[in-house]
């Protein structure tokens, strides 16, 4: 009975929880070396095959995160130094910057086939979040509610800013509403707890 977007949001959250639980085991020195050697052997046999993507699926790890591990290991070997996060992020966003053409193609395959991680997913999440803020603004205007938006609050020098502060609070189902924060994701118990700690308590204390 639920919409596709709701189910996708639930799936995405559950998948991210699983990745966080198993993240450490994929980042041991032994695991990194194994993945890198398997990548090298795989592309030696067939450079056109989706070696990194298949490896990520086999070990049940997010393709974009697998691409990051192998790219970091490749750059470490090439530069004889630990590459900066900025450089790695830039190459993941635009694989054409990767000096090795085969690896560039492998990384690209991983980022376009990852449903929950990577630069494309980040762009989509950002766009959906912005879209929901726009919809919320339209609803507030429709209801003739007076509000101050986040960008206006930032311009006034506020450090912690919800999406909207209502200039005249309203009552909803017996609760007084002073501010609204839009989250374009499924609100399960653990995400509510995380948002409370990271954002909501600071808004509650201020407003």
From TrEMBL:
Origin: domain of life: Eukaryota
UniProt-recorded name of the protein: CDAN1-interacting nuclease 1
Entry's transmembrane regions: none
Entries under InterPro entries matching the protein: CDIN1 (IPR029404)
Compartments it resides in: Cytoplasm; Nucleus
Main location (coarse class): cytoplasm
Assigned GO CC terms: cytoplasm; nucleus
Species classification: Eukaryota, Metazoa, Chordata, Craniata, Vertebrata
GO annotation terms (biological process): erythrocyte differentiation
Keyword entries, A-Z: Cytoplasm, Nucleus
């Amino acid at each position: 009975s639920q919409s596709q977007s709701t189910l996708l949001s639930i799936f995405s959250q559950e998948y991210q929880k699983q990745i966080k639980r198993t993240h450490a085991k994929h980042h041991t020195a032994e695991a990194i070396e194994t993945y890198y050697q398997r990548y090298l052997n795989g592309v030696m046999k067939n450079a056109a095959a989706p070696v990194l993507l298949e490896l990520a699926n086999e070990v049940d790890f997010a393709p974009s995160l697998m691409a990051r591990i192998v790219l970091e290991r490749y750059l470490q070997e090439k530069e004889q130094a630990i590459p900066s996060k900025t450089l790695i992020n830039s190459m993941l966003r635009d694989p054409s910057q990767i000096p090795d053409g085969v690896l560039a193609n492998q990384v690209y395959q991983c980022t376009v086939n990852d449903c929950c991680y990577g630069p494309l997913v980040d762009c989509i999440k950002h766009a959906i979040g912005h879209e929901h803020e726009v919809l919320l603004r339209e609803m507030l205007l429709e209801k003739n509610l007076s509000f101050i938006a986040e960008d206006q609050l930032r311009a006034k020098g506020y450090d912690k800013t919800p999406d909207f502060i209502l200039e005249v609070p309203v009552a909803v189902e017996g609760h007084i509403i002073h501010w609204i924060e839009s989250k374009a994701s499924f609100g399960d118990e653990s995400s509510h707890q995380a948002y409370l700690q990271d954002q909501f308590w600071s808004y509650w204390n201020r407003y």
